[in-house]
Write a structure and sequence with these properties.
The protein is an alpha+beta fold. The protein has 4 helices and 4 strands, in the order H-H-E-E-E-E-H-H.
């Protein structure tokens, strides 16, 4: 259950940006409805999702058409990674060399410390 204190201060992010006193929301089940622009924001797991994209997604629905339980958030596909080109690989080589050098230095330090600890425990 969303606290009434939170509901009292929440505003539609689009309308409050345009008019600081605008964007009042009506609470209807698992939804917050903007009285100014008609955007509808879902409440999922007792958390109001005040993302403009989510409000836009349901703006065309009448309040009585809204599902009782808001559907999951629409995930946007991640952009495709750029293809590995010779230029990109060439740019990465210094970082790979530094990474390998760091690993070797760490391994050498570990072996030296282990050897010193073995000498101390044998003495």
């Amino acid at each position: 259950m969303v606290s009434q204190d939170l509901l009292d201060i929440l505003r539609c992010p689009v309308c409050v940006h345009n008019e600081p006193e605008g964007g009042e929301l009506d609470h209807l089940g698992n939804w917050l409805l903007c009285t100014d622009c008609g955007r509808k924001y879902p409440i999922r797991d007792d958390i109001p999702v005040m993302l403009i994209d989510e409000g836009d997604r349901f703006a065309s629905l009448a309040p009585e058409e809204l599902p009782d339980i808001p559907p999951p958030e629409q995930l946007h596909p991640a952009p495709a990674a750029p293809p590995l080109t010779g230029e990109l690989i060439g740019d990465l080589i210094p970082y790979v060399v530094l990474g390998v050098a760091g690993l070797v230095a760490g391994l050498v330090a570990f072996l030296l410390i282990r050897k010193l600890l073995q000498r101390e425990s044998a003495a």
